[in-house]
Amino acid sequence: MSTSTTPETAAETTPAASPLAAAHAELGASFTDFAGWSMPLRYASDLAEHGAVRATAGLFDLSHMGEVRVTGPEAGRALDAALVGRPSTMAVGRAAYGMVVDHDGGIVDDLVTYRLGEEEFLVVANAANVEPVVVALADRARPFDAHVADETARWGLVAVQGPASVAIVAPLLDGASGVDLAALRYYRAVTAVLAGVEVLLARTGYTGEDGFEVFVPVERTREVWDALLAATREHGGVPAGLACRDTLRLEAGMPLYGHELSRDVTPFAAGLGRVVVLDKEDGAVGLEALQRLAQEPPARVLVGLRGEGRRAPRAGYAVLAAGEPVGVVTSGALSPTLGYPVAMAYVDAALAEPGTHLGVDVRGTELPAEVVPLPFYRRPR
């Protein structure tokens, strides 16, 4: 049997390239295959990039994320039926965190929805889940006067995150566009002209810091990246890769699909019941299951764990009580900001109270861990 790779197979397995691939190569980035994309893992040092985001700013390429536009007179109603929230009640310019669930209430993806107009929404999905999200939205929108379009290939996405974000972005905005960053509050978005390019500017992020995500027409992404990188460096910031993005979001207690979230996890077990609307009209996919699950305490719930020493729990490690398995770590690292190990884990609900002392099996050695509230890190106000 031949093991040669046909051209078709090679095309299917070659990671997609970011519109900023050349820029990253020029900066000496190390690349990784992430959700079918070749993306910068780091440029120099994970720790330096992490520290820059906490102290000043980091500039991220997020062009692997998916953008799905939903339009039409009943676009809001279609999204009410498709998502766990009620996007139809959002004001124009607002954004909301939410999820797509299956008929059993399992999480298909977590995502952010922006309302761009009375009949226009932008849904931003995780890179690994763009296809199932598009399929789910299109199927669930079918009874409504709404249109679903996968626009991932049309957009680049970059993010400035850190305390200096406002100082970095403000000088690059065209004053004639009338965008007031002081008035652009968290989870808001506005059309703006940045570095001479019309963009969607959102005050959202995944690091626990203040910052902006900038949706750019794909053919002009390099212009915006170069302008933001120059401004970021002027303020002592650096380009930042996916490695530090992961430790940043872990410190901020933000879940990652494939780790804390999956089709085997419900919003309630993940501590995300607050984004679920249970009194919607019949027909919302997964609503009956979610209504039932809301009345049934989950057997295991997501918690934060604080460790000791320098050895960090990692995803898949067993959580122990009296030497017996009572849960599993979903994400873990030695926190660069806090200086001690932190982890998120699903544990038996009876052991989820902060202050509970547990152990983690770290390569055959049980190390102590204490249940603590999430997030581990909150930015200074």
Automatic annotation (TrEMBL):
Domain Aminomethyltransferase C-terminal, first and last residues per copy: 300-377
Question: One Pfam match, by short name?
Answer: GCV_T
**GO molecular function list:** aminomethyltransferase activity
The highest taxon in the source lineage is Bacteria
Q: Where does the record place the GCVT N-terminal domain?
A: 22-280
* Entry-linked InterPro entries: GcvT (IPR006223), GcvT/YgfZ/DmdA (IPR028896), GcvT/YgfZ_C (IPR029043), GcvT_bac (IPR022903), GcvT_C (IPR013977), GCVT_N (IPR006222), TrmE/GcvT-like (IPR027266)
Quote the catalytic activity from the record.
Answer: N(6)-[(R)-S(8)-aminomethyldihydrolipoyl]-L-lysyl-[protein] + (6S)-5,6,7,8-tetrahydrofolate = N(6)-[(R)-dihydrolipoyl]-L-lysyl-[protein] + (6R)-5,10-methylene-5,6,7,8-tetrahydrofolate + NH4(+)
Q: What is its EC number?
A: 2.1.2.10
Could you list this entry's UniProt keywords, alphabetically sorted: Aminotransferase, Transferase
**Family membership:** Belongs to the GcvT family.
Q: How does it assemble?
A: The glycine cleavage system is composed of four proteins: P, T, L and H.
Q: What does this protein do?
A: The glycine cleavage system catalyzes the degradation of glycine.
Name this polypeptide is given: Aminomethyltransferase
